[in-house]
Amino acid sequence: MKSLSCSSNGRDCFISDCVYIANGPRLFNIVRVCKEGDLMKKWLLIAVSLIAIPTAVIWVIAEKSDSYSEPQEALFAADHDLTLIPGYKINDKALFFFIKGTNNLGAAYVQKDLFGWKADILTWSPMDSKRSYENLSGSQGQGENLIYGLIRHGDDRIVQIGEDRATILNLAMLPLSEVEKLRLEGLYIWYFEGDKLPGGGEIKLLNKDTGKELGTMDF
Predict the structure, then answer these.
(1) Residues near 174 by beta carbon (within 8 Å), at least 6 away in sequence
(2) Considering only CA atoms, which of 193, 194, 177 is closest in space to residue 185?
(3) Of all residues in the chain, what percent are helix, strand and coil, respectively (each to 5)?
(4) Which helix (H) or strand (E) segment is 49 a member of?
C-alpha cells in the first residue's frame, strides 16, 4: 500500500507515487484512486503474462520440433536424399559432407543448442560426371569458413594454401555399395576450415613424398 504523508495542519496530504493534494474530505477519494491505479497495474501485469507464457510455450515446442538427438537426424530431416560423409563432431558442432542424389557434392554444419541438434544451410554443386580428379579441378565453399574439393591419390598428396595443409578424407570410409553406386572409387575430399579464410589465393597440390608441385588452382 502507498504511504500517506500530511502537513502539520492535517489538511494537506499526499500519497507517495501519487501526485494528489488532499483537503479534508477529499482524502478518501484520493486513496481510492491510488488503489485503483495499483489494481490496474496488477491486471496489466496479468494480461502481459497471459500473452507471454503461451508465446514462450509455442516457441519451445517449435524449437524442440526442429531439434534432434543426433546431427545425422537433423540433416536427414532437412533433406532425406543424402549420403553423409562425416567430417568431425566436436562438442556442440559437427561438419558433414554429403552426396545429394548421385552427382552433387555438398557440405553442412550442424549445431547443438539447448533442445538438440539443428542443421545450418545445406549447399552443394555438381560433381564432374567423369570423376576426373587427378589434379585440382575446382573448389566449393560454405560461407567464409570452409573450402573443399575432390582429388585422387589422397594418401600420396598434400593440398596446401600458404603454409596451411588441407584435411583429407578417404571416401572409402563409406559402405562399398555406396562407393560403387556413386562412382567414388579412389576419391578423397580435401578441405580447409578457419574462422575466416582468405578471400582469394592459390591452392597447391604437392607430392607428399617429394614435395614436388603437381598443380595449382586459384580460389
Answers:
(1) 83, 85, 184
(2) 177
(3) 30, 40, 30
(4) helix 27-65
pLDDT mean over 178-187? 97
- Give the whole-number percent of the chain exceeding pLDDT 90: 58
Average pLDDT, the chain: 82
Determine whether 79 is exposed, middle or buried from the number of CB atoms within 10 Å of its CB (0-12, 13-18, 19+).
Answer: middle
CA distance 87 to 37: 62
CA–CA dist 22, 14 (Å, integer): 6
Under 8 Å between Cβ of 98 and 146: no
| Domain spans, the chain | 4-65, 71-218
* HSE-CB for 16 with a 13 A CA cutoff: 5
- Strands 18-23, 12-15: pairing kind: antiparallel
CA nearest 105: which of 123, 129, 121? 123
Nearest to 98 by CA among 42, 31, 160, 169: 169
Q: Per residue in 162-178, pLDDT tens?
A: 889 999 999 999 999 99
- Rounded to two decimals, the pTM is 0.71
The C-alpha cell that represents 2 in the structure block: 502507498
